[in-house]
Amino acid sequence: MERTLVLIKPDGVQRGLVGEIIARFEKRGLKLIAAKFMQVDQKLAEKHYEVHKGKPFYNGLIQYITSAPVMAMVWEGPEAIKAARQTMGATAPTQAAPGSIRHDFALSVGRNLTHGSDSVENGEHEISLWFSKEEILDWDRVLEPWLTGNN
């Protein structure tokens, strides 16, 4: 099964959308295998956004992600990365599909509520930054065959 990191960023937390956003992923059929509500420190922020270092918006990203708590999660499922990104919608909320989180709740790229891994490799890397192996639970969901079964 594929895994993806999903963050509910400070704007989602401040706006009280944590439950709504989690519900969207659960209803989609993804399985939550790790979660923690946390204040992001400078070191983690810099590691997470390392790929953007030197870009004009880098300092703003660091300031923003450390400005208030985030809900960090790991979701699992077949094509979890693609499914999570569809559920979130396009990075620019005005380009996001109706029914997606960003379309329904966001107006600007700078306050687009969520982050999700964009590839299997980045997912593995990001998950290892945010969670230890001990924090990720491997558990059996009894309704799994009804969500991911093949005929």
Shape: globular
How many runs of DSSP E, i.e. beta strands? 4
Low-pLDDT parts are none
The CATH superfamily title: Nucleoside diphosphate kinase-like domain
List SSEs in N-to-C order.
EHHEHHEHHEHH
The fold-level CATH name is Alpha-Beta Plaits
* Beta-strand content: 15-25%
Supply Rg.
15 Å
**Could you describe the largest sheet, including whether it forms a barrel?**
4 strands, antiparallel
List keywords for this structure.
alpha+beta; single chain; 151 residues; Alpha-Beta Plaits; globular; 40% helix; 4 strands
Describe the SSE topology.
Elements: E1 2-8, H1 10-14, H2 18-28, E2 31-38, H3 42-48, H4 58-65, E3 70-77, H5 80-88, H6 101-105, E4 114-116, H7 120-130, H8 144-148
Antiparallel strand pairs: 1-3, 1-4, 2-3
